[in-house]
From TrEMBL:
GO MF annotations, alphabetized: DNA binding; DNA-binding transcription factor activity
InterPro entries in the cross-refs: Carb_Metab_HTH_regulators, DeoR-like_C, DeoR_HTH, NagB/RpiA_transferase-like, Tscrpt_reg_HTH_DeoR_CS, WH-like_DNA-bd_sf, WH_DNA-bd_sf
Protein's UniProt name: DeoR/GlpR transcriptional regulator
Annotated PROSITE patterns: HTH_DEOR_1, HTH_DEOR_2
Keyword Transcription regulation: yes
Signal sequence interval, chain numbering: none
SUPFAM superfamilies: NagB/RpiA/CoA transferase-like (SSF100950), Winged helix' DNA-binding domain (SSF46785)
Domain (HTH deoR-type): residue spans on this chain: 4-59
Keywords: DNA-binding, Transcription, Transcription regulation
Amino acid sequence: MSTREDRLDRILGRLDREGTVGVDALSEELGVSLATIRRDLDLLEERRLLERTHGGATRKNVNYDLSLRYKEAAATEAKAAIARAAVAQISPGTAVGLSGGTTTFQVADAISERDDLVSDLTVVTNAVNVAHKLAVHPGIKVVVCGGIINPSSFELVGSFVDAVLASIWLDLAFIGVHAFSAGAGVMTVNEAEAHVNRLMAQRAQRAVVVADSSKYGRRSFASVGGADVFSSIITDDGLGAEAVTELTAAGFDVDLATTDGPTGGTR
């Protein structure tokens, strides 16, 4: 039987493709009761990801895809903990790269709460929502890579991004990803975004993956790199000891952020 998270992902995916979904069809496809599907749809409606109709649901009229809106609502406590651990590694006066993604957006939010950083920091990003978040602080020099925007992720990609990144150096880069594992390394769903992420990481003295533990062991379409590109991974303390051992053996330092404290610890 599918887990709730799996069901929600599949419901949103079908809604993205078809625009509408029916309770009966979803129940048969996912192998759960009609009541379970109705509860799933009610939950997604509460998160403003769809509109309930008689016998099903329809996609809301939004400017970005449903999967991104779902990810923004998912694992928020873990992502906030990861962001706190990431920002603890930033020193005033440095140049920091931030890729797109819900976790890196949390990093931007955590930067905004540090008085010493908002008065003296340079941030380079290819994500327009991250830039918008930080642009209100006059003490932060925000450098936005030009390019073509992906409306599903708010990330800029293309040759303009490459030109900007090729002309700068960063002290530290935080890269958000869709999947990571000891064997396959770091991955994302879009090959153009993977290219930008890899280039940003390579332009940094130290590149760090920020990703919640639910992404461990998954596979995604486009490879970003392994321990040859990223020195460490910051994830939450939901990652098991066996996974930590596997990642360490693969060459990554693993920083586990605790959800009840400001930073995590390396294991």
